[in-house]
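Why 4-hydroxyphenylacetate 3-monooxygenase, oxygenase component? Reviewers of the renewal asked for a concrete example.
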Amino acid sequence: MPIITGEQYISRIDQLGTEIWIDGERIHGKLSEHRAFKGIMNSQAELYSMQHDQSLQHELTYSSPTTNDLIGRSFIQPKTKEDLVKRRQMVQHYASYHHGLMGRSPDYMNTVVTAFACSTDYLQGKENCYPEHLQAYYEYAREQDLSITHTFIDPQVNRSNFYIEFDEKPIAATIIEQNDKGIIVDGAKLLATQGGMTDEIFVMSASNDGDGNRAFAFAIPSNTSGLKFICRESFALGESEFNYPLGSKFDEIDSLVIFDRVFVPWDRVFYVNNIHVANTFAQNSLFRPLSLHQVVARQVKKTEFLIDVAFAIVDSIKIEEYTHVQHKLAEMLVLQETIEALLLKSEHNAQLHEFGYICPQREPLEAAILIYPKMYPRMVEIIQLLAASGLINIPTENTFQTELNDDLNHFLQSKSQLGEERVKLFRIAWDLTMSPFGTRQTLYERFFFGDPERMSGAIYNLYKEKRNL
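Here is what the prediction returned.
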């Protein structure tokens, strides 16, 4: 099956009948028509439809190695540096559409699944590991152009070093039975972004303290019996793109995933009851370098968007002459140049991995992902400081459609804009930095790839090993 359209994506998800709960109610009917999912699913659909744009198709797709059909380039297993460059260009085409605000756009999990498929050699010959299942799943996802979410994290019950769960009913997702047909999983996992609005979910142990029943990786359809997605409150506060220019389109719902005796057939299990593999596969596979390459490519475009908003505010109210304003903008520009340079360095220094695929240099990507959680909140703060009270004086769309329109256009005008255009700009800045959607974006970037303290340790150990210390 070749690349799908946005209409096909929406139709597939609507037909699943996945069990999704939000605000105390189970969703019935078409998910794409629900107020919390309508905007983000339409945006997701646009990304699939972009694959059919003749001006972009050569950069967003490639020919399937098995069918010669056009398939998404995010599934390509890189063999050359040119493949990495093309992957980056593909990611940034998509990110330009959503301004880098969709951290779980389809190209992210496609990249993750591809990275694991590039690393099946690591599973060969290891106990309770099924590399052939992982390879088959990758090919299935690639050929069907699947949308996929994932969940890696156990519920945040007790983060102490020596916590051991003794509850009779599992809290963290646990294998409670095995038979000749598959495994049965009970418990819960966090934090499935886009939970419920994808074809499938990829489930994996992030780390393991010694319980083999929590050492696994598998993938199943989102509508699997016993699987529930419990969503947070929607931050798409309304459908008006005037009032909520970003949240109305790009709020990726996050969810708790509950497994109520969920059956997983063996052909969907990639490894099970292997604590060593559960603790090392992500680190020793191409997961980190390839997924970080996608993440940093997106963050470059997100940073460009924040800079564009900041410059638009400065131009609107004519404050560029002030030195402190120039200094703040320079901070943002330096970050953009830094992470883009690190991204390009990772491609320039890419080398052939032992598994036979080209691998971007990991060190500059690890540096970029460590810088960004510190600098993103600072960029948000800079926009707040530049806009000041302008982020408060932002009447709604309906207000402009009353007899007050002339007054608002006059009294809220800026140096270069009438009141309505000025408010549109400042509502973008508000939605980016102060709304529930915007503050969620800040928290998301703080912890996108994990705890920054642990990431610091990871990059230290990486360089320690490189220097033979």
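The chain is about 45% helix and 15% strand. This is the kind of structural detail the renewal will allow us to pursue systematically.
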